[in-house]
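Justification of resources, computational component.

The compute hours requested in this renewal are based largely on the per-chain cost of generating structure records like the one below. Each record pairs the submitted sequence with a full structure-token output. That output is archived, and it is also reused by downstream analysis tasks.
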Amino acid sequence: MGKKVLAIVSSPRKNGNTDMMVESFLKGARDAMHRTEKIYLRDCKIEFCRGCEVCSSTHHCVIKDDMERLVDKLLDADVIVLSTPVYFYSMSGQMKTFIDRLMPVYPELRGREFYFITAAADNDTMIERTMQALEGFTDCIENAEIRGKLYGGGNWRKGDVEGKEILNTAYMMGANV
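The structure output for this chain reads:
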């Protein structure tokens, strides 16, 4: 069988624009015979990083919450999709907290393929700041490969992406994992 594709959805809205684009991506990946899983951060209990630095020597976080389970899934994946709505020209707080909590294991994520999927009310140009922040995370991972970035600008209200070419673009991106 194909690759293991794990999508992390940080939108607090069920069936929102980001979620719909991710689902199109995953459908493409499934149609290409890859195994997929989608995790909603809104359903997870994830505390903020405490900055205690214990993980720098132990490679384990002292906080016991859903990140333990999520880390196992990330380490098992070949492809990681990070998706976020764009709020005030940056990623959602849920995504930022998730990324911060990956400090203990980012060296173990080496060699993974990454895709970024975003949606925003503003145009694609304003999404660039968010993409740069996501790239900053992968810059810390040895041999991380950003395979695709999907800019979903001009989609503010829930369902704005319905019937738009962006869903086909997401599908094709997933089909080409």
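The mean pLDDT is 95. DSSP finds six helices and five strands in the chain.
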